[in-house]
Write a structure and sequence with these properties.
By secondary structure, the protein is α/β, with parallel strands linked by helices. The protein folds into 2 domains: 1-30, no CATH class; 33-192, 3-Layer(aba) Sandwich (Beta-carbonic Anhydrase, Chain A), CATH 3.40.1050.10. Helices cover 52% and strands 15% of the residues. The chain has 10 helices and 5 strands; from the N terminus they run H-H-E-H-E-H-E-H-H-H-H-H-E-E-H. Strands 2-1-3-4-5 form a 5-stranded mixed beta sheet.
Length: 208
């Protein structure tokens, strides 16, 4: 994309917004009150607001390679804390996508330098679900299933945090696991049974 064109696009966007609502940017500057925290992949093909039809101010967004929520990453942990404890979001979404190059790279035997420790988190997801994944003969279907299981495990990582546990107890905040199908454009709710997952892990991870 031409950099100069980006600024021309910006001017056109401003004019379009002001034509519809002269107070648009004045109102936008007053603050935010999003209902949803969206944690997704940095992939350039997966734009959070566009695929959900969300407007500015409706969704608090964090993106990284393969939509990960490792407890050692201060960036994602800070985002969760701010969204849950300060913005008071009522929903947290982890959204992966099929044909994720991060997931595929994690499953290849290659030295990727600084990416190695990040992608190791995905290898850990494979290790946890090795029996199921190894039973899938078709490679493409195996990667797609790993995308889904990775979303599930990142949702579990969210449930382990003290901010979410407190919000779950006080206002029953909900966590959702989604996948974006690039081939069809559809958002898929994985319908993860978090009640059963919570029963299985909270004896170990309960903080609040």
């Amino acid at each position: 994309m031409n950099i100069a064109q980006i600024f021309r696009n910006n001017e056109s966007w401003i004019a379009e917004k002001l034509k519809v609502d002269p107070e648009y940017f004045k109102n936008l500057s007053k603050g935010q009150n999003p209902e949803v925290l969206y944690i997704g992949c940095s992939d350039s093909r997966v734009t959070a607001e566009e695929l959900m039809g969300a407007k500015p101010g409706e969704v608090f967004v964090h993106r990284n390679i393969a939509n990960m929520v490792p407890n050692t990453d201060l960036s994602v942990m800070s985002v969760i804390t701010y969204a849950v404890s300060h913005l008071k979001v009522n929903h947290i979404v982890v959204c992966g996508h099929y044909y994720c190059t991060g997931v595929k790279s994690a499953m290849q035997s290659a030295d990727l330098g600084i990416l190695n420790p990040w992608l190791r988190n995905i290898r850990d997801v494979y290790r946890l679900h090795k029996d199921e994944l190894d039973s899938i003969a078709d490679t493409e279907e195996k990667y797609k299933r790993l995308v889904e299981l990775n979303v599930q495990e990142q949702c579990v990582n969210i449930l382990k945090t003290s901010d979410v546990q407190k919000a779950y107890k006080e206002r029953h905040i909900t966590v959702h696991g989604w996948v974006f199908d690039i081939h069809s454009g559809k958002l898929i709710d994985l319908q993860i049974d978090f009640d059963n997952i919570l029963k299985g892990i909270m004896e170990i991870y309960r903080i609040i």
